[in-house]
Amino acid sequence: MNLLITRPQPDAESTAATLRAQKHNPLVAPLLTMEALPLRLDPCRTFSGVIVSSANAIRAIPETERSKLLGLQVAAVGERTAKVAREAGFTKVKSAQGDAEALARHAAKIFKDAEHPVLYLAAENRAGDLASALAAHGIAVQTVVVYRMTFSHGLPHAAHDAIVARKIDGVLHYSRRTVDAYLHLAEADNVLEAALAPIHYCLSAEIGARLIAAGAPAVRIAAHPQEQELISLLPPDVP
């Protein structure tokens, strides 16, 4: 299958490598760019742990600040985020293997006896209210925005041309923000109808709902919000 990958780098290339190994033909066209925001932690503040809902939160932490957190327990949304955290030097990492709701439940179990607030390293635009969800369990959370995802100025030329020529069989969607970028940029380029025509493979029902509302005729939802589940939706690429 000719598959369009719109998620940001470096995750886009990792996904592309997985798809190539399965004999698919991926077109990497990131629609979002991560911008790390300034972070300076109060040296007098003590945290019981760290929560991350994206690998980008780990990537956004400056080296000088990261060293202050490495000994803390980390609750990560999924295995990819957990892997990035371990590669960054965190040694106590547990994955929720799910979405934002699963992360909240996971963190509630891990930090149920926390003596100090838990540090939530968050995106500027994010789904759900994790702090409120954990407050219901008596867990204090300090949310610190460490990065934002900004839209590209337009669809990459290769993606635009492939969409217009109807050469894309499927589009993989990993986040609400990426779908918003895809729909916005396609409409701005006057190719929304063609952009909605392929099969859309979505990591969650929330992501799929946005595409259905926009008029996408074929939307597939992963059984669980994990990349292997998303990729398992793809038919084998038989010559």
Automatic annotation (TrEMBL):
<dbReference type="InterPro" id="IPR003754">
    <property type="entry name" value="4pyrrol_synth_uPrphyn_synth"/>
</dbReference>
<dbReference type="Pfam" id="PF02602">
    <property type="entry name" value="HEM4"/>
</dbReference>
<comment type="similarity">
    <text>Belongs to the uroporphyrinogen-III synthase family.</text>
</comment>
<comment type="function">
    <text>Catalyzes cyclization of the linear tetrapyrrole, hydroxymethylbilane, to the macrocyclic uroporphyrinogen III.</text>
</comment>
<dbReference type="InterPro" id="IPR039793">
    <property type="entry name" value="UROS/Hem4"/>
</dbReference>
<dbReference type="InterPro" id="IPR036108">
    <property type="entry name" value="4pyrrol_syn_uPrphyn_synt_sf"/>
</dbReference>
<feature type="domain" description="Tetrapyrrole biosynthesis uroporphyrinogen III synthase">
    <location>
        <begin position="14"/>
        <end position="231"/>
    </location>
</feature>
<keyword id="KW-0627">Porphyrin biosynthesis</keyword>
<dbReference type="GO" id="GO:0004852">
    <property type="term" value="F:uroporphyrinogen-III synthase activity"/>
</dbReference>
<dbReference type="GO" id="GO:0006780">
    <property type="term" value="P:uroporphyrinogen III biosynthetic process"/>
</dbReference>
<keyword id="KW-0456">Lyase</keyword>
<protein>
    <recommendedName>
        <fullName>Uroporphyrinogen-III synthase</fullName>
        <ecNumber>4.2.1.75</ecNumber>
    </recommendedName>
</protein>
<dbReference type="GO" id="GO:0006782">
    <property type="term" value="P:protoporphyrinogen IX biosynthetic process"/>
</dbReference>
<comment type="pathway">
    <text>Porphyrin-containing compound metabolism; protoporphyrin-IX biosynthesis; coproporphyrinogen-III from 5-aminolevulinate: step 3/4.</text>
</comment>
